[in-house]
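COURSE: Structural Biology Practicum
ASSIGNMENT: Worksheet 4, Part C
STUDENT ID: 0417
INSTRUCTIONS: Below are two proteins. For each, the amino acid sequence is given first, followed by its structure token string. Answer the questions at the end about the second protein only.

PROTEIN I
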Amino acid sequence: MKIAVYAIAKNEAQFVERWYESAKEADYLTILDTGSTDNTVTLARDLGIHVERWKFDPWRFDNARNLSLQMVPEDADLCVALDMDEVLVEGWVEHLKAAHADGVTRPRYQYTWSWQSDGTTGLQYGGDKIHARHGYIWKHPVHEVIVPTCVETQGWYNLEIHHHPDQTKSRGQYFPLLELAVSEDRDDDRNAHYLAREYFFHNRFAEAAVEFKRHLALPRAVWAPERAQSMRYLAKCEPELKESWLLRAAGETPERREPWVDLARLYYERSDWTSCYAAATRALRILNKPLEYLCDEDAWGSVPYDLAAIAAYRLGLFAVAVSYGEQASKFSPHDQRLMTNVGFYRLAA
């Protein structure tokens, strides 16, 4: 079998060598440069990477990625769409060989999108940008996805890709491209959610609320976690209906921690300690963290333990408060407030 790793690039000189070192076991390495003014192209070619250049006007991510895919030789079996700020973790080739032997056309893998300040992993979810050379195209001007034009077979493998981005790069072009993506396909539920979220990030809450509700009304909006996420955002857009939206989110995905933690926070703010304790402990009974981009790190760290401890203390459950407080401190050992609270709980117990 033959493996290709391909990318689009613009002013990525700082990442070229790291990208190459992680991907160099591939049979083919290709980069489509879309207008670099630094030495991205020179560095890549010096490493033996096949580089072509093309400027797109107007710019669309799907057009760029489709052209970069066309650069991959026809005899490649599997292709890895690896952005320049991403790296393949050692051992990836053997996993792709196994996938190919299994007849899998879309190997799935663990993708680490962000990192904590101490270097531990942050947001992780299932990646889907490895695919067979033929039978796939990229779609959407931004937040583009690789879609099958064939009958695909998916399978999960212990392959990992890590993301280490340049935080100084502007993402300003995303907003108009996302509006374009939605105008091109009004029924696409994923981009409806993304556009509503973008309105929210730009403090355009009324527009965000309208688009979140449109997302929820779409017949294709059937993925419960994303529906629940829209409801959680609506709780922020319409604070007078906050409890109602959060209860709907919890009802949509009762198996996810995030809505329950949101409810626990709301009841904490209201000093409704019985409801706060019930919501926080409900969250803590959920033990399996899904490998999805919608997970909030707060929900899987000290926060639900802290809220459960405070509520238990207020309800006179002092020994319970000590237990939850100690667990909160284990997640955030340098948080002085958490350690001080545990001292209060112990005195009361």
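PROTEIN II
(use this one for the questions)
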Amino acid sequence: MENKKSIIYITLLSLLLIEILSLIGFNYNIINQIIFIILTIGVFILSLYKLKYGFYIIIPEIIIGSKGYLYFLEISNFKFSIRIAIWFSLMLAWAIKIFIYYLKNKSININFIKSSYFKYFLIFFIFILIGAFNGYYNHNNLKNLFFDINGWIYFLLIFPIFENIKDEKFLYNIKNIFIGSIIWLSVKTLLILYIFTHIFNFTENIYLWIRNTGIGEITIMPTGFPRIFFQSHIYILIGLFFIFVLYKKISINFNKYSDFFKKENFKYIFLFIIFISSIVISLSRSFWVGGLSALIFLWLIMLFFEKINVKKFIYFNLILFLFLILSVLLILLITKISIPKQIEGINMATIIKDRAAEVSGESALSSRQTLLPILLNKIKESPLLGKGYGTIVTYKSSDPRILKNESSGLYSTYSYEWGWLDIWIKIGLGGLIIYIILLFKIIINSWKIYFNQNAIIFLGVLLSIICLSTVNIFSPYLNHPLGISLVIFSVFLVENYKNK
């Protein structure tokens, strides 16, 4: 237990330091460049010593970094993100280890090749290569092609992570680093909420840092409430479902209401409140729909497969509703603190209701509706093999930031909001189908392990993939390192358990 707490505390302190240095580096580029170089070389040396050490750095970066530009190096108008740098460092260390092993043993030993998932990934990688070739063949801009495909090459981490397939300490450390990282992400979200609902002289600097490093987006709503959206909030949502299933196992055995207030349950109460608060603050309908889809699936499992009695089912959901109320109250408490002077007129009930009920007129939703038929027409041009990476589409956006620079609202991009359609356009119908098969295999294997072995964590894996797949309908995640990382670790967890 003490070791677990130590890992979480070290993760929290490390991430606090990393973010403070990133903020300083945003104002003083020399600091940004120095930290970039230190991290890149550090990950390479650590990974060369033991591959798992590289993952101890990659995982928290994914969770807090969103687009990966907490630190960056700019060369000839190219911005190389710290995410690309540490990915390359770890992959290079793995390749060197494989080469050294070959020199010593005259054979190649790659654990992932022995996995039952290898054949699916092999076919999938072929379609990714086809997407790269198509992008080049269709004369797509090479810079666009590179930045479009660079997220997909994150899948290659599946090879080095499998070198730790039987290392239980690796799994234990990863779990606690994950917990520490999403706790920090939640706390950071609440801190930023406090800053942007009060009057501080440094608010603009924080806003520019968040926006320009790609950490997230902050939009001031008409009521004055700041919508704080980080792409990496998806991991808080994923973490929430792992807490759900763990708490479900405990709460359905409560015999009386006082059981809820037992000391050992306080950690769940704390995590529920800060995680749900962060998802509410994001005001992301994609997250809300994804979370609801996974929750409905959980309800179906509880009622029809686990056959939990109705009384316990209702009690469990009343507790979840209580957590939601407490989370909203926490948000209100933060916004109403009067030191320093707070922004007036914030009504959380109205904000959530209006956000959930908006079906037209809102800029992001309007832009998605305009984009949809254009993407469908693009798919019709080459439905089987797709158009390749870097494929540009032009549509009329309602985003105020785009309208500010282009009065017509016409916007060209190779990155689309409709995640599944993006995948179809880039790697074709065949690539889309094999990706779905891969995700379905993770779901089926997690289902079998959970019900046959009663391994509760795999119910969390199952719900996470369902949630992520739903969110991907509206926002691109399964073609981005944020979603790809979850797929990789889900495969690793399944195969690690099967190899016990």
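ANSWER KEY EXCERPT:
Q1: Residues 118-139+365-500 form one domain.
Q2: The first helix runs from residue 2 to 27.
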